[in-house]
UniProtKB/TrEMBL annotation, chain A:
Pfam family for this entry, one: Tfb2
Any one GO biological process: nucleotide-excision repair
Alphabetized NCBIfam families for the sequence: tfb2
Name recorded for this polypeptide: General transcription factor IIH subunit 4
Record domain Transcription factor Tfb2 C-terminal: where: 337-404
Keyword field: DNA damage, DNA repair, Nucleus, Transcription, Transcription regulation
TrEMBL record, chain B:
Alphabetic keyword roster: DNA damage, DNA repair, Nucleus, Transcription, Transcription regulation
InterPro entries: TFB5-like_sf (IPR035935), TFIIH_TTDA/Tfb5 (IPR009400)
Sections of the chain in a coiled coil: none
Subcellular location: Nucleus
Source lineage: Eukaryota, Metazoa, Chordata, Tunicata, Appendicularia
Protein name, UniProt field: General transcription and DNA repair factor IIH subunit TFB5
SUPFAM superfamilies according to UniProt: TFB5-like
UniProt subunit comment: Component of the 7-subunit TFIIH core complex.
Similarity field: Belongs to the TFB5 family.
Function: In NER, TFIIH acts by opening DNA around the lesion to allow the excision of the damaged oligonucleotide and its replacement by a new DNA fragment. In transcription, TFIIH has an essential role in transcription initiation. When the pre-initiation complex (PIC) has been established, TFIIH is required for promoter opening and promoter escape.
SMART domains (UniProt xref): Tbf5
GO CC, alphabetical: transcription factor TFIIH core complex; transcription factor TFIIH holo complex
Amino acid sequence: MSVFRELPQIAKHIIIRILFINQQIAKPLIESWVADEHREKFEVAMEIITGLRIWENTNDGIAFNLNNSFRTYLQEALFGGGETWRPAVETLGADKNAKTVEQLDTYTKERWDQILSFLTQEQGKLSEEVISLLKYAGLCDANGEKRFQFLLLDRSSQVWYLLVQYLGYVQKLGLSLVNVLAFVLQLGYCSFGTDYPCDNSNNEISRVIQHFREMGLIFKRKSKEQRFYPTRLAQSISIAGGKKASSEDVQEQFILVETNYRIYAYTDSELHYALISLFAEVQYRFPYMIVAQMSRDSIQQSADYGISAEQILNYLRSSAHPIARKNKHWVPQVVEDNIHLWCKERERLKFNDGLLYHQFLDQEAFEMLKSYAQDIRALVWANDERRFMVVAPWSHDQIKSYYKQIKDGMM
Amino acid sequence: MVNVENGKLVTCDPALKQFLLNLDEKREFGGRRFILKDLDETHLFVTADCDTWLKGRLADLMTENSFPIGEHV
C-alpha cells in the first residue's frame, strides 16, 4: 500500500485499472488509455512500475501480469480484510462495569498528567518501566531541552512523540517490534468508548497493554480483566493530521493573556505552574490562580532551552480561557508578534559551513561547476554575476575531481 | 583557475551586514579581520571560528537597543 502511495499519478491509475483483472494485459491496450501528448509521462510511469517489479513482463514485453502478492495485498488494503478486532460484547457479553466516555476521559487525563508532572517535578506514581521509557526518550536529560519542548507540545503530538520512542524502547526490552507496531496501529483504528477483548495469555501484548494503561492510552479495570477500552489518546494516533479536534476536549482552558504580556492562569496545578514559569516570570501565586509576566528576557531564556515562539504560542492558544476565545485572537496579536520578534532576534544571523569558490576565469566554467554542485545537492549559495559559489564542505573532493575532468577535457 | 576558501557563509539583513562590516573594520575580533569576502547585500563569507563570538555581539547589540516593556515598578 505504501509503495502504491508513492507512485506517480499515471502509474496509480494504470494499476487500479488492472488490479481486478486476473489475466495478462497487452501493452497496446494500456497505451490506448493515454493521450498522445502525455506520452512522456506515461513512459516514465511504465518504467517505474516495471522497475519495481510490480508487474512481470511476459511475451517479450508486449503483455504484463501484475505481481501476485502485490495484487492480493493491495486489494486487501483497499477493501479491508485480514483480521480485525471485534468489540468484546460479541464474545464476552456486555461489561458489568462499563465505562462512560466521560469516565474514560478523566482517567486518561489523570494518567497523562502523572507523566507530565513526573517530568516537571520528578514526582508522580509511575512504574519503573515507564520511568525508564521516559529516560530512554531523553526526557529526563539534565539539560532539559527535549523535556521542555515535549511539555509544550499539544497533547496528540506528545502521544506521538512518546509512541515513537516507545517503539525503540520495546526493542530494548526484547519484545518483537512487529507485534507491538501491529498492536499500536490496530489500537489507533478502534472506536472510542467500546471495549475490546484481550488475550492475557499473550505475554508480549499484555505487557504492552500494561504500559499503555499507565500512559492513559488504554483503560483496563484490573490487570487480569479480559477486556480493555482504548481511550481518546489512543485514537489520536490515527488522526495525527487533524489533531486540533481531538486534543482540545481533553485539555483545559484556563489562560488569559493581556496585551501587557501578563498571563492570568486559573489553575492550581503544579504542572501548569512549572510550564508557565518556563517562558514567563511568575509574579503572584494564589490558590487557583497564577499571575505571570512575559518579557524579552523570559522569552529569550526559554529560547535558550530550545523552545520556539510557535511552541509557546501553541500552548497559550490551546489552553486559552473560554472568555479569551470569544475574541478573534485568543492570544492578543501584539503579544504574538512580539514573542515572534523576540525569538527572531537571535535568528538574524544564519551560518552555513561551506567552501567559497571564486575568481573563475570564464562564465562557462562557473556555470558547469555550479550545475554540477546543484546536481549533487551540494550548492549552498551562488551569485551568477560576480561568479561566487559556496558549497557544502563534504563535496569538495568530489567537485575538485570533476573540475579536473572538465579542465582536462577542454585542453 | 579557481580559488577555494574554507569558512562559513553568513546570511543576514543589510543593516546587520553593515554592523558586521564595522566590527571587521575595527578589528574587534581578537585584533584581526574575520570577513574573508563580501559577497553581496545579504551575504558574507567569514572565518569558521567567529560564529559564536558574532552571535554574542548581536545579542549585546539587541539588548542595548531594547527597552523593557510592561515592567512593573
